[in-house]
Design a protein that fits this description.
Elements (H helix, E strand, L loop, with lengths): L16 H16 L12 H5 L19 E5 L4 H11 L9 E6 L7 H15 L2 E4 L5 H11 L3 E4 L8 H4 L1 H20 L6 E7 L23 H20 L3 E6 L2 E2 L8 H10 L3 E5 L5 E2 L2 E2 H11 L7 E6 L5 E2 H12 L4 E5 L13 H7 L7 H12 L4 H7 L3 H17 L1
Parallel strand pairs: 1-2, 1-4, 2-3, 4-5, 5-6, 6-11, 7-10, 8-13
Antiparallel strand pairs: 9-12
């Protein structure tokens, strides 16, 4: 039996989570005059308007419920851990029977932080994060043989824009080779599991059209990281064409919150201000980012796990409210009670503004972020302040940090 053909008749099954959310979004659109499709929002014209192909009648993706078995790659990562924790908090009817993470625990940023996340998952939910490389097909096969996953959420990747300048081959391996390896394995499973994966707002590169829409052409690359994530989307499309694998790619926009990556602005600024370090602001600090709180993003991921389109779909998951970096810096200063020291540096790799058009995700998934930057920073700081000083310092490290410090030293020598 195929995972796309469930035992109960389609008419007797409850609506998918994404469908319920989409109905609510349709009602809201009608009230405010946004012009929802007269044929409804759950298929036909609504999906086609966004260049998605509706699933054939009677074909669905598995619900996320008590019979689900979910594999999360990058399970010790920021979004991966947050997703696993969210699934673990569900009630008995909707909490998956199995949730397993896989993570390489590499040292791009502090492995100690990743182990802290894994320990949290084990302690609070009994979930394991297997230490392994997702490129290792034998490990993936062993897990599938044991659990027969209904859903795969591929969040493992080499992140970071600036790091891609100095370590391009790391991105070629982790964001291309490992993607092909996992896709090839999943596509040849019978039945195929639902497949959701992380893309990035960086795919839009130097796009001049604001806000960024899934309908925009991707033809102005800014950095290798963004290109590697866009290539992942294209590879997913190829596997749909070759093997009929349905997939959903999620373009995340500057995700922040408790347990956040230490190389991202909120965590990085907080640690550097606290330690009296000088913050580097690129391009005169004239940059805006669509900061998106992690809980909002995770809800979007969970909606996407039940979305059915007969193609390789993509969605923006952002807050759709870009914020000047200087404002975020001032808000962190206010919460710490310390003024920041900073310097300016030019960079061709950094995008000046990211701004998500979330109309597609709102319409087809029911995605609706609710967390303001002020509220999100309050929640981040509440978590951060619970960490002892030693842990804060230990979790702030990694290769990304060492390279930034070395670059600063080299720049200082060059000015002498």
């Amino acid at each position: 039996a195929s995972s796309n053909q469930l035992e109960q008749p389609v008419a007797s099954r409850r609506l998918n989570t994404w469908a319920v959310g989409a109905l609510a979004a349709a009602a809201l659109s009608a009230v405010v005059g946004l012009g929802a499709s007269p044929h409804g929002i759950l298929g036909g014209n609504a999906q086609e308007r966004w260049h998605d192909t509706p699933c054939p009648d009677g074909v669905t993706v598995p619900l996320v419920n008590a019979s689900s078995r979910v594999l999360v790659t990058g399970g010790a990562g920021f979004i991966g851990m947050s997703l696993m924790a969210s699934l673990g908090k569900r009630d008995a009817r909707t909490r998956p029977a199995v949730v397993v993470g896989v993570d390489s625990f590499n040292d791009y940023y502090a492995p100690a932080m990743k182990r802290g996340r894994a320990a949290r998952l084990k302690h609070e939910f009994g979930y394991d994060v297997v230490e392994a490389d997702v490129c290792n097909t034998s490990v993936v096969d062993g897990l599938f043989e044991k659990y027969t996953f209904t859903h795969v959420v591929h969040l493992a990747a080499q992140a970071g824009v600036r790091y891609s300048i100095t370590h391009p081959m790391t991105y070629a391996r982790n964001n291309l080779e490992c993607v092909v390896s996992l896709l090839n394995y999943v596509a040849h499973r019978t039945p195929q599991p639902a497949y959701v994966y992380a893309s990035s707002s960086s795919v839009y590169g130097l796009n001049k059209k604001i806000p960024f829409s899934e309908l925009h052409a991707i033809d102005h690359p800014a950095n290798l990281y963004g290109i590697s994530k866009f290539a992942g989307e294209q590879i997913a499309a190829a596997y749909h064409n070759l093997h009929g694998l349905k997939s959903v790619g999620l373009r995340f926009f500057t995700v922040y919150g408790p347990w956040g990556r230490p190389d991202m602005a909120v965590s990085l600024f907080t640690n550097e201000i606290e330690n009296g370090e000088t913050i580097t602001l690129f391009n005169g600090g004239d940059m805006r980012r669509d900061f998106t709180y992690v809980d909002d993003v995770v809800r979007g991921v969970e909606f996407a796990m039940e979305y059915c389109a007969d193609n390789a779909a993509v969605f923006n998951l952002g807050n759709s409210k870009p914020v000047q970096l200087g404002y975020v810096l001032a808000q962190i200063e206010k919460r710490l009670g310390v003024k920041a020291k900073f310097k300016y540096q030019a960079s061709n790799a950094e995008i000046k503004e990211t701004y998500a058009d979330i109309s597609k995700a709102r319409e087809l998934l029911g995605y609706s972020p609710t967390t303001s930057i002020e509220s999100g920073l309050d929640q981040f700081m509440a978590w951060y302040n619970k960490l002892d000083k030693r842990t804060r310092g230990e979790w702030a490290g990694g290769r990304f940090k060492a390279e930034r410090q070395n670059a600063h030293l080299e720049g200082t020598r060059g000015r002498v």
